[in-house]
Amino acid sequence: MNNNRRVIGATCAIHHGARGFTNLVVNRHDGGIVLDPHAVGACVISLDGPGALELFEALRDWFG
After folding, report:
1. How far is CA 39 from CA 8, 9, 17, 53, 62, in A?
2. So what's the pLDDT on residue 51?
3. 59 neighbors 47 (Cβ within 8 angstroms)
4. CA-CA distance, 22 to 3, in Å (whole number)?
5. Residue 28 and residue 49: Cα distance in Å, rounded?
6. What is the pLDDT of residue 62?
7. Phi-psi sector, 63: left (phi>0), alpha (psi -120 to 50), beta
8. Phi and psi dihedrals of 60, rounded to 5?
9. What is the spatial distance between Cα 17 and Cα 5, in angstroms, rounded to a whole number?
10. Confidence (pLDDT) at 12
11. Which one, of 29, 48, 25, 55, lies nearest residue 37 by Cα?
């Protein structure tokens, strides 16, 4: 298992489909993370270290 890469089953709000229809690929890269919706590299979201930590804190607040 690659500890720097995760594939998370998700649902696309635009294209809909069943739960897990969309693969969200998350990679740890250069001290931050890269989110790749649809796992095709067409549009990626990059967060630096502070942004990734802010996302982590938000998820922890929301889901305990």
Report:
1. 10, 11, 16, 23, 25
2. 96
3. no
4. 21
5. 10
6. 97
7. alpha
8. -65, -40
9. 24
10. 81
11. 25
Residues paired with 12 in a beta bridge: 16
**Tens of pLDDT, residue by residue, the chain (64 residues):** 678 999 998 888 877 776 667 888 999 988 899 999 888 888 899 999 999 999 999 999 999 9
The strand ranges marked E within the chain are: 5-10, 22-29, 32-37, 45-47
What pLDDT is recorded for position 40?
A: 83
CB atoms within 10 A of CB 43: 9
Look at the chain and count its residues: 64
Question: What are 35's two structure tokens?
Answer: 């989110």
